[in-house]
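Run: sequence + serine -> complex structure.
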Amino acid sequence: MKTILVTGACGQIGSELVTKLRSLYGEDHVVATDIRVAVDNPAQGDGPYETLDVTDGKQFLEIAKKYQVDAVIHLAALLSAKAEANPQRAWHLNMTGLVNGLETARELQCQFFTPSSIAAFGPSTPQDQTPQDTIQRPNTIYGVTKVSGELLCDYYYQRFNVDTRGVRFPGLISYVTPPGGGTTDYAVEIYYHAVQHKKYTSYIAAGTKMDMMYMPDALDAIVQLMEADPTKLVHRNAFNISAMSFAPEDVAAAIRARIPEFLLTFDVDPIRQRIAESWPNSIDSRCAVDEWGFRPRYDLESMTKDMLDKLLARHRMP
Ligand code: SER
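>> structure
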């Protein structure tokens, strides 16, 4: 049975992924790590937790060796808007962390997964139904680290035979752990505000479409790709995957089906708007479908129903 090390385990993806992996592979077979001292997360059970700064390569390797891990899922990174506020720190965390993760995987000859993002595309990329293989000239530091990461993962596979795999995630929406400092965060905040205040002011302008996905589909995609038959993978890293594409007013309309008085206003943040405009309107996930059977379950309507059900239930609790 395999043992998996997860970095960024307290983050938006990690906090739910650890719970899912522990239910699939057993509590003791998932080593949760984060720069934070363990937070109390009853959903994750009593499995191993280690404090790890991913920029410390020695510590990364030591922890992986201690548990004799067979796979590393490397999630620790700064998101787009936070990265733009501190490009040097973003490069250091996103790239040094990635190199340390890849080196650990090389040394232990284990599987390696890390997410890329729709941010790996830029203004010169075809914006609609963006193909898997296309122009990638991002103009954000986050995007630059993501393209570099995609190339580095391909390189480690070709040069050192490390079993690297990865997807380009769109904006991820969940009701468990909020994202921190991304451009697509509005699509999470809007649900919290709808439930609490029945109104939301969007920092992204009307008409700005971006790809999105509900967290359960994102977690399934990670597990499915990690378990995929390697002989079927033409691409290994950076698979385009998306479940839906929408603009702020589209989410508002979906919310109004349940909360008719919901009001959406706009106060556009030029920095995040510029980032959003440099990303595709919608990406083409065909290679992920063909090569490993990617199939998301949630669209905007079914995601909105589930988000509001969960958040309203929590809101009503005393
Ligand atoms: N959701 C991320 C962000 O907005 C995109 O990878 O930064």
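>> summary
The radius of gyration is 19 Å. The longest helix spans residues 87-108.
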